[in-house]
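Here is one chain, start to finish.
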Amino acid sequence: MIQLDRKQQLVILLLAGIILFGAGYRFAQVKDKAAEKDRPALEAASENITGELSVHVAGAVARPGVYNLPQGARVIDAVNKAVPLAEADLDSLKLASKITDGQDIYVFLKPVANQDGSATGDGQGMQPAPTNTPGTIRTSPLPGNSP
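Its structure:
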């Protein structure tokens, strides 16, 4: 039988511990990769690895464009990055709502009032009607089907 002194025994135990730790770490990595493969493609694609959201801010802002914001950011954070104009109608936005990745934020101008106090009909401060929602009726006639 081989006789080892105390120092040699410690070195062997240390090497065995390192090998066992490395093998366990590698096993955990392989197990995580297998679990990632089993996830649905849409679920895996919806996760943002960097933890940032990209939003597009346009309209009555000084610096329109795409901005990267941290997870959990609000609409007000995106609008402030784009520097809203003095004529911007911020009350028409839900400033406290959380943003989502790929969201478009359009800042409208405040409605311009006539001398009698009524708003003008130019629609600058009004949001356009959605065109692809249930219940929307298109009023433009089809070509060749005029009344």
